[in-house]
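yo

u said u wanted the structure for the complex thing, so here. seqs first:
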Amino acid sequence: MSENVMTLQVITPAGVVYDHHANYITARTTNGEIGILPNMISTIAGLEIDELKVRRPDDETHVDYIAVNGGIIEIKDSLVTIVADSAERNRDIDVSRAERAKIRAEKALEVAKAEKKSDEIKRVEVALHRALNRLNVSSHN
Amino acid sequence: MGASLNEIKTKIASTKKTSQITGAMQMVSAAKLQKAESHAKAFQTYAEKVRKITTDLVSSDNEPAKNPMMIKREVKKTGYLVITSDRGLVGGYNSNILKSVISNIRKRHTNESEYTILALGGTGADFFKARNVKVSYVLRGLSDQPTFEEVRAIVTEAVEEYQAEEFDELYVCYNHHVNSLVSEARMEKMLPISFDEKGDEKASLVTFELEPDRETILNQLLPQYAESMIYGSIVDAKTAEHAAGMTAMRTATDNAHSVINDLTIQYNRARQASITQEITEIVAGASAL
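structre next:
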């Protein structure tokens, strides 16, 4: 293994979603976007619902996108671990399902706003955010 | 000889049908067990990682914990999350866990106000209701391969009740799946979260850069940790349930077969007896002439 490579593992309750080498990763933490390079200082941070961009070492143009629903990122000894409730690679995303989830969330948001339930609004907004994120990531195909 | 030929015949036919059904149910449970086992395995990796990150984070400095989920409060009330099945036909699965919960509760508490039950699965909920034990939360109709989303409702409920100081510690009671023949009733303390038991693991010497800060990450990570622990026990319990169902149905099928054997012998004897009787009657009739 060359020195300038790190391993990225994305793990969800349904199993390991992604386990590959990478030489550059961008992720959005609660504090903002970070770029991760091999041999970086050990870090733990919370993630936003957003996309993860992974540059693979085999080819300059080889980039993977992963939709991550929150979770935690841990960087330690060039091993990047992400544990999240759910995560999907762009090629695994079911676009029509994500589309339906988006429409459902939009409708639920209208209802919740009409009824002025602030908890419900927050919850639905997160669901909508997730659906939009999945759609956004799947568009990289 | 009691029963007539016809009666025995119907009995044999009906037992055969029952054995077919139990045989089919055994196969269904076996298939579900296999699925549940692979699911539990996939989840194991997740649980390990969450645990590792939490340990890394907590052991990276020695300040006393400030997070409400880690602070030990004086125990005034204990919550028990009891995982049972919704359906019957799983052998001793339910009675096993309920018996151990009841005996534990009797040992620990003298007063009813000292504990509360959260029931997952209909059998447990009905059991405690019939005994006038207060059940503060019931979740029924969990699917055979519960997803994380499905279980989140009860986990969130448990964590919220804990944070609202409805109870001061939470135990999860479930059947741990050992193998397809053996499961054992377990009672595990989930809240407050403690890392005392991992004394043999060496604390990592790596210091971590924390973004944004320790408390914020803990606030996000600890609920996830608790969720994963509780979800893990639910997955484990479901696996044990399928195993118990499989074993129970196999025993039922075996029993049905032995009943059919006995009945067939009885039937043949009765048939033989009636033939003998007929011959005797004919012979007696002939000699009377």
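Residues 5-25+248-281 of chain B form a domain with the Helix Hairpins fold (CATH 1.10.287). Chain B has two domains: 5-25+248-281, 28-247.
cya
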